[in-house]
Amino acid sequence: MPMTYETFTREIARLNDVLCSINLLTWDSRTMMPAGGVESRGKQIATLTGIARDLATGDALQKAIEGARSELTGVPADDLRLRAIETAATQTATLARIPASLVSEAAELKTLAQSAWARARAADDFAGFAPMLERTMEMQRQIAGAIGYDEHPYDALVSTYEPGMRWKRLRGLYGELQTALLPLLDRAREVRIRSDILERSYPVESQRAFSVRMAQRMGYDFDRGRLDNTVHPFEISFTREDVRITGRFRDTWLPGGLFAVWHEAGHGLYEQGVSPDLTRSAFTADFVNLYAVGGASFGTHESQSRLLENRVGRSRRFWELHFEELRQAFPDQLSDVSADEFWRAVNAPRPGHIRVEADELTYDFHIMLRSEIEAGLMAGEVSVGELPEIWAAKMRSYLGLTVPSDTLGVLQDVHWSSGMIGSFPTYTIGNIMSSQFFAAARKDQAVETGLEIGDYQPLKTWLNDQVHRHGRSRSPSELLLAATGSELSTEAYIADLTHKVDELTL
Amino acid sequence: MPMTYETFTREIARLNDVLCSINLLTWDSRTMMPAGGVESRGKQIATLTGIARDLATGDALQKAIEGARSELTGVPADDLRLRAIETAATQTATLARIPASLVSEAAELKTLAQSAWARARAADDFAGFAPMLERTMEMQRQIAGAIGYDEHPYDALVSTYEPGMRWKRLRGLYGELQTALLPLLDRAREVRIRSDILERSYPVESQRAFSVRMAQRMGYDFDRGRLDNTVHPFEISFTREDVRITGRFRDTWLPGGLFAVWHEAGHGLYEQGVSPDLTRSAFTADFVNLYAVGGASFGTHESQSRLLENRVGRSRRFWELHFEELRQAFPDQLSDVSADEFWRAVNAPRPGHIRVEADELTYDFHIMLRSEIEAGLMAGEVSVGELPEIWAAKMRSYLGLTVPSDTLGVLQDVHWSSGMIGSFPTYTIGNIMSSQFFAAARKDQAVETGLEIGDYQPLKTWLNDQVHRHGRSRSPSELLLAATGSELSTEAYIADLTHKVDELTL
Predict the structure, then answer these.
(1) Are β-strands A243-247 and A227-229 bridged in parallel, bridged antiparallel, or unpaired?
(2) CB under 8 Å to A489, separation ≥6 — which residues?
(3) What is the distance between the alpha carbons of residues A248 and A295, in angstroms, rounded to a whole number?
(4) DSSP string, B131-159
(5) Helices A360-379 and A153-161: crossing angle, nearest 10°?
(6) Nearest chain A Cα distance for residue B46, angstroms
(7) Which Gene3D superfamilies does the annotation name (chains A, B) (predicted)?
(8) Distance between terminal CA atoms of chain B?
């Protein structure tokens, strides 16, 4: 049988199916699975991941890549089929450079390290976790070495999440943000805000109903998705036709539940908006991380969630339009609150220790701190033993806070125990991009009018057209350039946060 | 690397993981999946099934089987490892005999045939479905031929669901049942029963709560399981640590919801009770049907569900013990009903057209009718075009009913459109076995005392020990013989139904 482009697409489609199945195993383990299933689920995911790796790096696909290349000799260089082939070739080559033994060792270590981390966090005992973290970091250094890099070992890892991103560039962005945000934060600290109104008793079923209604208005399609409860909300998809979001509602903290749903709905809009032509293609999966996803990068994905959550959901206009509906859902709790007070409350700067609870003005400092530590660990300039000390020093310097415990400090996130080194920067990249995309979208009069009257369809249409439909067929910088006319730049983000502080301090 | 028994178990464990993943894809598609996911889910299941087939029939496993055989030369013949090897060898050889092209053709046809069936059923148009059914039957005949058989083509298919079962033996069993049940049915028809009390308005949440409470009392472990809503209730597992059941509750038909939960809990008890030593082994999967399951056969599995549903849940003692608790859940609806009246109502003979709504006295006639048609189709003695006519004749002869439409007749079940020929007999085999196992269990004094006081733990322990823990390491007849001292026999079942009619007509 001659190897043709057709063979290539069939192999890639099969690989997509396996990756989507892994996604379902993951989704289920975090939403539905009974407690007893943990161990066997781990094995199921490991086996399917091994199969996916074999498919991605095995002879059949590699020969199909060769065959498809030959068949398409001479077609114009911008033909999307060529890009599909080269995308798959590059990514599977990166994957193949990481020895299978290292992958399975890392997977085994992850299970041990996560449970060591959970114990250490509960006991506030960093020393108990340190040896496991040391091994995890050593393994990540080996993986970085296997992948290869020009400038800095951290680049190898960061670029698996954000293609093309380097530590040098990140440091530049972080510097710009520090310069701009620290004075803003000082100004915002002066503001007096009634945050306590968010901590009244808000029945979760009404929270859920309101958040769902708004998510639908923003364009999330429940015929191709669903919302379930989980511990740490996430979005995950099994092709564009089945894109699920999760949430977590707490009775006494209203914004937690609402904004998480809109955040995940932003991710969901991205996946639901990928062009149907790309389904099960080289542009709907990440063949390095072996993950079915239609978004161009972690940062690009985060830009869409942040856009809905912060640029739309935390805007003044949003609450002028929708606070009355929220008050109808909670008439007693919100009887003495105005739309303006509510908007202020959900935007209150609250410098704190926990990243996932951080407001927009402090969030990026949590990321900078972690990125700097990760880069230092990868370069061998920082040792695991020093982490609590370095953490405390950076927290004092960035946010003026004294770290009370390792649990509220270096032990707070699951990422390091999972070996996910290099993903934190994509949160800040996402924040930056969200403002760039939003600013560009608002130049479209229909989008601007829609935002003014609470019709989010034009915004969705713009995002579908400029971002979502392309799946992974464009790189993050190509998407940005085409949609906004500019490369990644902190300008729009800083402008948005400055505008917000101006409004808050008026 | 030398191929050893260790290699064999590792390959088999991987295959189990893939089959468990397929089970999860299936479970999700019938409980959680949004409507949009149908098409891509079909592809995911097809891809994983193809991978499972490749693993089962591929070189790695076959060489591992050879290696393990050599390694274990000389061990005693009853060593369970030998049986594991031979079970896997025999089943994968059967699977390999069915050409891959036939499997994928059958899978493709299934999708088309199911939707043709659904349309035909809605329009009461058998002729519209007939061509598709003709192709399905032709394919099943080819599959039967590929698998091979000694006496009758139907045997090849039946034995994939019920190892060792043949059409000749089935006809013998059916004859015995007809002889015994027809007079019982005539006697039972005379009984006047207040069935209307079951059709009052019973809020589904209370139905669910009561059925769950009783399922727990029967021993179903919710830490390793869960109950969800679906259209056609089923049980499915992903190792013994995660065994899920499903139900369907209707406001105005109380027994439908309750008994379905206990039925599925009976299946669930089986899977949850498989010995942990067997997890991910050759004894926890069906390598012909490519399905992760710990039960010895479809019939054996059904015996466990029928045992809880009918032998326990429909017994007089059960309702003497638990009716008061049910009445507390529905105080208004059941205020004028006695335990005895309720027991009679859930045992009322109701000859009708629909198999899944049939009572115990008529259920097996629905199975006989279908088995006879299937055997005739496989032998080429019956043509698809004749089916409505044959169906009507048999329905008249067995239950004295005139078939009003194809929707209530030949089009009622999904099985034929799915190409599941040969599985219907296992329902009757399950009924027969359920009485054999139950009679044997009751010889244990602790079981009998438990049933008398509503403590179902001793029964569960007996079933765990005699049936469940063995997984698929014993054949159905070995299980029966060891547990009951007898081969498959209708005696106990007929005795149970006779006793029931005696009680009802008292």
Answers:
(1) parallel
(2) A432, A436
(3) 24
(4) HHHHHHHHHHHHHHHHH--SS-HHHHHHH
(5) 130
(6) 9
(7) 1.10.1370.30
(8) 72
Amino acid (1-letter code) at residue A11: E
Cα B217 to Cα A453, B263, B308, B367, distances in angstroms: 56, 14, 11, 31
How many other C-beta atoms lie within 10 A of the C-beta of residue A122? 10
A278 to chain B, closest Cα gap in Å: 13
Pairwise CA distance, residues A257 & A248, whole Å: 5
Global pTM reads 0.96
* Joined tokens for residue A256: 């937690």
Q: How far apart are CA B464 and CA B458, in angstroms?
A: 10
**Interchain CB distance below 8 Å, A34 and B239:** no
d(C-alpha A224, C-alpha A272), whole Å? 8
Per the structure block, which two tokens stand in for B53?
Answer: 């087939």
- Angle at alpha carbon of residue A350, lines to A346 and A354, rounded to 5°: 105
**Per-residue confidence of chain A (506 residues) as pLDDT tens digits?**
567 999 999 999 999 999 999 999 999 999 999 999 999 999 999 999 999 999 999 999 999 999 999 999 999 999 999 999 999 999 999 999 999 889 888 888 888 898 899 999 999 999 999 999 999 999 999 999 999 999 999 999 999 999 999 999 999 999 999 999 999 999 998 888 888 999 999 999 999 999 999 999 999 999 999 999 998 999 999 999 999 999 999 999 999 999 999 999 999 999 999 999 999 999 999 999 999 999 999 999 999 999 999 999 999 999 999 999 999 999 999 999 999 999 999 999 888 999 988 999 999 999 999 999 999 999 999 999 999 999 999 999 999 999 999 999 999 999 999 999 999 999 999 999 999 999 999 999 999 999 999 999 999 999 999 999 999 999 999 999 999 999 999 999 999 999 999 999 98
Question: Pairing mode, if any, of strands A235-237 and A243-247?
Answer: antiparallel
Q: How many CA atoms lie within 13 A of A29 on its CB side?
A: 18
Which stretch of DSSP H or E encloses residue A247? strand A243-247
Of A50, A222, A279, the CB nearest to B40: A279
**Cα–Cα distance for residue pair B64/B91, rounded to 1 Å:** 15
Pair of tokens at residue B194: 């207040």
Nearest C-alpha neighbor of B15 from the set B59, B64, B53, B63: B53
Environment class of B271 (CB within 10 Å of its CB; exposed 0-12, middle 13-18, buried 19+):
buried
Instruction: Confirm if B303 and B107 have CB atoms less than 8 A apart.
Output: no
Pick from A286, A272, A188: nearest CA to A237? A272
- Residue A21 distance to chain B (closest CA, Å): 7
User: Residues 6 or more apart from A139 whose CB is under 8 A from it?
Assistant: A102, A105, A106, A109, A419
Please say whether the beta carbons of A108 and A50 come within 8 A.
no
Report CA torsion sign: A491, A496, A497, A498. positive
Tell me which of A24, A48, A54, A239 to substitute to probe the interface with B (most B C-beta atoms closer than 10 Å).
A24
Residue A159 CA to residue A165 CA, distance in Å, equals: 5
| A280 contact residues in B (CB cutoff 8 A) | 40, 43
Q: Is B264 a catalytic residue?
A: yes
- Chain pair A-B, CB pairs under 8 angstroms: 115
Element (H, E) at A292: strand A291-292
CA distance A59 to B286: 30
Token pair belonging to B140: 């099943």
Rounded-to-integer distance, Cα A261 and Cα B342, Å: 47
Determine contact, residues B307/B437, Cβ cutoff 8 Å. Answer: yes
